[in-house]
Predict the structure.
Amino acid sequence: MGTQHTLDCDLLVIGSGAGGLSAAVTAAHLGLKVIVAEKDPQYGGTTAWSGGWMWVPRNPLAIEAGITEDAEKPLSYLRHELGDRFDETRARAFLDNGPRMVEFFRRKTALQFIDGNAIPDFHGHTPYAATGGRSVCAAPFDGRRLGERLHDLKTPLEETTLWGMGIASGAELRHFLNALHQAASFWYVTKKVLRHWRDLLVHRRGTQLVNGNALVAALARSLLDRGGQILVNSPATRLLKDEGRVTGAVLHTPQGPVRVQARRGVLLACGGFPHDEQRKRQLLPHAPTGKEHWSAGSRGNTGDGLRLGESGGGVVANDLVQAAALAPVSLVPRANPGSEGSVAHFPHLIERAKPGLIAVTARGERFTNEANSYHDFMQSLLAATPSGQTPEAWLLCDHDFIRCYGLGAVKPAPMPLTPWLGKGYLKRGDTLAELARACGIDAQCLQATVQHYNAMCAQGNDKDFGKGGTPYNRIQGDAIRATARGLPNPCMGPVERGPFYAVKVVVGSLGTFAGLRVNTQAQVLDARGQAIAGLYAGGNDMNSMMGGHYPAGGITLGPAMTFGFIAAHHMAGIDPAHSHLI
Ligand SMILES: Cc1cc2nc3c(=O)[nH]c(=O)nc-3n(C[C@H](O)[C@H](O)[C@H](O)COP(=O)(O)OP(=O)(O)OC[C@H]3O[C@@H](n4cnc5c(N)ncnc54)[C@H](O)[C@@H]3O)c2cc1C
């Protein structure tokens, strides 16, 4: 391809996560010619590493299970949660179109869903919080259906897998945690692992795709089925404009620069700014040099979409309550540094609520309800950190806990602990005092904290932070094991039998919230609030409709999928309320 090489399409999508692919698949079904440009050698972005959960109140799977609610209920929940950041017009656009989006994908495409009918919103004490029925997850997907394109699908974040095999949240994860205790779980796991090893021999990677990996795979399959193209190794570097309208972009492909003309629009979906030091410095107060934020987001997400949007006249919002979806992250040294770096950023999403773990600062004190959402956990840590000090904490447990649930990247029994101790990732002490010394924690205070905590476990009443006090806390706990041990609170168990273990967590995120200001059609707005013709934003390049709040799991992928669906309809000139796709 020479420098004059051009391609043409109706929609050019820049970035291949959920934000981009949702719009791409919808547009292709509406008859538009679609090109997706991806910077990395593999498509999928952070979405391919994610849990694949989407917050979509009043979705068809919930309704079929008899969970019905008026749109005013989730709307009121958002109103209470978001306070002065609540934007009713955007919230209504999302709530009206979310169920349509799910209906379209499950009826017309390769993407199928499993329900989240038992998954509560994060804040059970907020009025109109639901105890279930407001989310869906991508159903498992057989990667072999992608044929050759399986090989440029991003693999799951290695440290969250077992030998590269993703583990679905919910029932499947429970089987893995119970594999040494229940015959049914043992056989389930054995079958899965054997099939995975066979896949590695035959396909050089796993094909039993779950969670976000299944979401991307199903979206990619659906796009390819409709003649859409996905170009990898093709970063967009510049927007093309004509008299105030965005008309395409320049891609840097392995064959050289290509001008892509897009008749209906360009959608920016480059995954926000989790690895853009300059933007982090501006928008994240805890990262004064831009380095003190270790996002678990895909490393290719370096803020390109926001810069491209600004070059087209767009504006990045700087007034969110929190500019990123915070999460505690531990830094995992890698034996074989790949394109994703020599240190993995492991997000702690699963073990914090299980009975027998506490989180302490270097002072040896607890600072929060460990079973709260990752975002709330980090907000508490930031609040507990004296100014000028680095926000960091230790997740701490005893031997029984770590063998039962693992700790961060450390897997439960029968996987060995030794390699993690050798790398210094995992700290151990035969006594609490010894562990405190290994971590640099105040030993006396830690012993007092653990003694006080253990005493509260018998009653199951966390007088200090209310652990186990919400449906979300409790579902993240382990009611079965807690009951078997006579513990009344599924999130609280004593830390009592040495050796003791700890892993350090620092400030990270699952992605970023602050993005380009948009209207209800996902069109990027200029400084005067006018829509820029031909320019749309999706996923985390679009300013989060939650205003920096985090009311429920799935509040990035739910809106990402929904506004992608809306944007495609807008480009096709069709009102989604009357779409023939549903
Ligand atoms: C472990 C983990 C679990 C998570 N679980 C959930 C969950 O269950 N539910 C939920 O809602 N959220 C979850 N999240 C957050 C969620 O995954 C992200 O917010 C979401 O995937 C972002 O989607 P996106 O489309 O904006 O970006 P991405 O999926 O990151 O895709 C962006 C793509 O753009 C590409 N790109 C960047 N620059 C360019 C360029 N110049 N040209 C072309 N391409 C470019 C990137 O390489 C990347 O592939 C999770 C995150 C993590 C890390």
